[in-house]
Amino acid sequence: MIRIIVPGRPVPKQRPRLGVRMRGRWIVQAHVYTPRETRRYEALVRECAQWW
């Protein structure tokens, strides 16, 4: 069994967000992205797990 200790408070995974670029009434481009807090916490967990 491997135990990984992540310092700090746990951060719940947030829902993906939708960004939309409009031109007048028309949607020109839409993209889905992960919120900043989730990306940061996932990076911290990944960094802690790389020691193993």
Structural overview:
The structure is a single chain. The chain has one helix at residues 36-49, and strands at residues 17-23, 26-33. With 52 residues, it is of the alpha+beta class. The chain has a two-stranded antiparallel sheet. The model has no long low-confidence stretch (mean pLDDT 92). Helix content is 27%, strand content 29%. The N and C termini lie close together (12 Å).
Write the layout of secondary structure elements.
Elements: E1 17-23, E2 26-33, H1 36-49
Antiparallel strand pairs: 1-2
Task: Looking at this protein, list some descriptive labels.
alpha+beta; two-stranded antiparallel sheet; 1 helix; rod-shaped
Quick structural gist:
With 52 residues, the chain is an alpha+beta fold.
Specify the helix fraction band.
25-40%
Query: Roughly how many Å apart are the termini?
Result: 12 Å
**How many H/I helices?**
1
Rg on CA atoms, Å: 17 Å
